[in-house]
Predict the structure.
Amino acid sequence: MTDSTARVSPGVPGTRPTRQRRAVSEVLSSFEDFRSAQEIHTLLGQRGESVGLATVYRTLQLLADAGEVDVLRSEEGEAIYRRCSATHHHHLVCRSCGATVEVEGPAVERWTAGIAAEHGFSDISHTLEIFGTCPACS
Amino acid sequence: MTDSTARVSPGVPGTRPTRQRRAVSEVLSSFEDFRSAQEIHTLLGQRGESVGLATVYRTLQLLADAGEVDVLRSEEGEAIYRRCSATHHHHLVCRSCGATVEVEGPAVERWTAGIAAEHGFSDISHTLEIFGTCPACS
DNA sequence: AGATCGATGAGAACGCTTGTCAACTCGCCG
DNA sequence: CGGCGAGTTGACAAGCGTTCTCATCGATCT
């Protein structure tokens, strides 16, 4: 269903696969955890693949809309992005070093669905993030 | 342990109970859900209790540090505050009309604590919001 | 190759938040 | 009871992340 790479543009209609978009997508793929737009922008510069900051933002939004990346807000309010894997999951994030652990919780999924149904809500989605201090940082 | 009102300043050493702080604290108490600093600032103005924006921010930080309010980030990255009620709960929000239902989930609390512990994380907090379309809107 | 239209980049603009600093208040001591 | 000092305030500027603007560029189609 999802063949991870090379489907950056095909999703949205009037969208083109440009050098910049590929570059952003690649950098994104090279990380497991969340990165801010600015961080990605800097990294691209260091890699020689200079891409305008505005373009980085635009591309990330595009990818987010297409459901290819997860967007989160750090506790400082910065938007952070990460390529999302096919499976729906949540994150356990270290406040101090940013280390991220993916966690799954069928129980939680069922619980949210149940609660929503109980109140007559439909078309449900939810966000769940767990923050803490990882063993290495405490 | 927590006697809700009137302990805005006694917590922190060199801290005084001023008109402004009381005003912010009161406005905060008059809501059950999260409000942004700017919103609180505007509300104070309407109430006739004008308080400088910077002071609102400072007071909210103070209260947050003292553990009297919860701070969260809206999806737009705005910091939102809520008086830390005794009961921890989550929200079921209608995407269309904004209606909010407070929900509690002991199971979820236990689950997050468990997951975190399992990975050696400490000092845990979490955010969980459920979005959907309410009966009236669908 | 030429035309068309989305994409890009540089910089300005914007909104939220924090810092600065002089004026002010509150609580306290003499 | 008056004055002192430390905490507090408010207006404004600065900082930062993000979005917008617009002229230019480049990809796709004919």
Q: What stands out?
A: Residues 19-132 of chain B form a domain with the Arc Repressor Mutant, subunit A fold (CATH 1.10.10.10). Chain B has a mean pLDDT of 82. The longest strand of chain B covers residues 122-133. Residues 16-18, 36-38, 53-54, 57-58, 77-79 of chain B lie near DNA strand C (CB under 10 Å from a C1').
